[in-house]
Amino acid sequence: MKKAFRIFPVFSLIFFFFSTSSLYADSVVLRSVPPAASPQKRIELAFVLDTTGSMTGLIDGAKKKIWSIANRVIDSHPDADIRMGLVGYRDLGDEYVTRKFPLTTDVQTLYAHLLAFEAEGGGDAPESVNEALDVAVTQLGWSPPKTPGVSRILFLVGDAPPHMDYNQDRKYPEVIGDAVQRGITVNTVQAGTAAQTQKVWQEMARLGAGQYLSIPQDGGRTTIIETPYDTEIRILQKDLNLTIIPYGTSVRQESVKAKAKMYEAVAPSTAADMSSYVSKTGRGRSAVTGSGDLVADVEKGKTTLSQVAKTDLPENLQKMSESERAAYLETQKAKRAEVSKALAEKISQRDAYIQEKMAEMPTDKDLQDSFDRSVSKTLLKQIPSEK
Known about the structure:
Layout: E1 42-50, H1 56-76, E2 81-89, E3 98-104, H2 107-116, H3 129-138, E4 150-158, H4 172-181, E5 184-191, H5 195-207, E6 212-215, H6 230-241, H7 250-265, H8 268-281, H9 294-299, H10 315-318, H11 322-360, H12 365-368, H13 371-382
Helix pairs in contact: 1-8, 1-13, 3-4, 6-8, 6-11, 7-8, 8-11
């Protein structure tokens, strides 16, 4: 019997910035990010996730551990430009067949989309795996195949084989062949032990030059390590958020505010993981992912105060003179630098604490084969080491 997975009401406050467009259409807020001109190492990572009812436990675990996975990548490749995308899929006759969110550096908005997924529908064994793979390979905005310094990695996560009787779909051998031509490594993660799924998942991984991973149906044991630093990090993040200056359209300003509130809506350990990732990827200049925070965008050279129209500034800045606005921006930049330094120190202490605790953990198979550990180990093997 398939069970429905529902979102806790506490998460509702982070979704209001999707109200101007359908949550599940190609998002106005979450867009494909064009490839950067610099030769900076880039990691493009997409998850193709079965969201039918039998995947309830795994999706719940993914929501808890996606930031932990992202942190393991940035810890191993601190100078990388990391972009993530997501495709959820079910089957014909369900509420939807696929829902896609293109590759983006705005991981917080992507996370909000992940939180919004519910595991329900399905009911028969085959699902629309072929269509989901096709969407992931052709519609997520991967960088061109010959772009230097790019790792393109895809994880197909599910428990049921593809419908091979849908004439309208390109079948997985063709789609995966297309992926390989585009430089995309295709990994498969099988939830459960269905023999029919195992056979196809193993063939997909072989065709995609990737790895076949087998995990328990519920995603395995999700280990949440709470640390003495989580509460301190949350307090510092709250102080950091006070330095944010949202700018741009009203929709973008509301999006930035929503991402700042996201830290308050999740568990302390998840909030600390999120703070850690944003701090490391933003080099201490960012409070949220994506654009729309004037302090971060000026620090990164994306814009200047003089380039921003007065009407695109928050109301309190619109009432100031030009010199007052400039002084206010400098004050916020100075506050951010101070808080970011303290936050980075706490994050470093937290990282050391987690490493120590993980070294003490048992090595039983269910823990080692959990979703987050399996994905993290595979990623670290497939992304070329820094030289």
